[in-house]
User: Which sequence fits this backbone?
């Protein structure tokens, strides 16, 4: 998600995916981290990966650096945060990605609950993006992650035989529009973290 914010928002980041001994290089553990001491973020940080951790903090920080997103209203940013938090809530399906027998009991009630609200309560536009911009914002990018990324979401969905496109076609259509946005499409074509190999398995 942080990487998607960077590519859509034209934020130049050094993307380090070397996780060797990662838990000893970050303050909290195996979580996204940002190192940016010149910006005043924890200038005394002793961890090589940086001290700013937790998904939402890293995502919001990168979005805040973007000239593309700077005109978003507080309301639009709140909507982005809501979708981002749904993404975090849905990470509870992760055990279903590793254990297929667990997937139906984890995935179905969670995805039914959240996607029903999104589909039925006016959050998903028939065209364009959630916040009405010409580009996807955090809401669209979060939805793309929990609908189409390979692991853990996509693998858990596949193990549960949960078909988002059939149950919630408008949600899948938004995910497809977001994936087709030029900057996102280019990123997905080469990403080593979106786990696109699972797409070949029908996800």
Assistant:
């Amino acid at each position: 998600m942080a990487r998607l914010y960077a590519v859509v928002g034209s934020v130049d980041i050094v993307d380090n995916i070397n996780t060797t001994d990662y838990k000893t290089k970050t303050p909290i553990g195996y979580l996204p981290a940002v190192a940016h001491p010149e910006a005043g973020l924890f200038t005394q940080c002793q961890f090589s990966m940086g001290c700013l951790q937790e998904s939402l903090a890293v995502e919001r920080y990168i979005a805040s650096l973007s000239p593309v997103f700077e005109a978003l209203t507080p309301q639009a940013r709140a909507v982005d945060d809501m979708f981002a938090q749904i993404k975090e809530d849905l990470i509870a399906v992760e055990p279903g990605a590793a254990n297929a027998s667990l997937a139906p009991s984890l995935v179905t009630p969670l995805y039914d609950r959240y996607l029903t609200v999104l589909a039925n309560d006016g959050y998903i536009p028939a065209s364009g993006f959630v916040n009405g911009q010409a580009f996807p914002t955090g809401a669209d990018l979060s939805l793309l992650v929990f609908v189409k990324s390979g692991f853990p979401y996509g693998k858990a969905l596949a193990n549960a035989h949960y078909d988002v496109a059939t149950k919630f076609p408008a949600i899948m259509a938004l995910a497809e529009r977001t994936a087709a946005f030029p900057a996102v499409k280019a990123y997905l074509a080469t990403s080593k973290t979106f786990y696109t190999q699972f797409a070949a398995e029908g996800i």
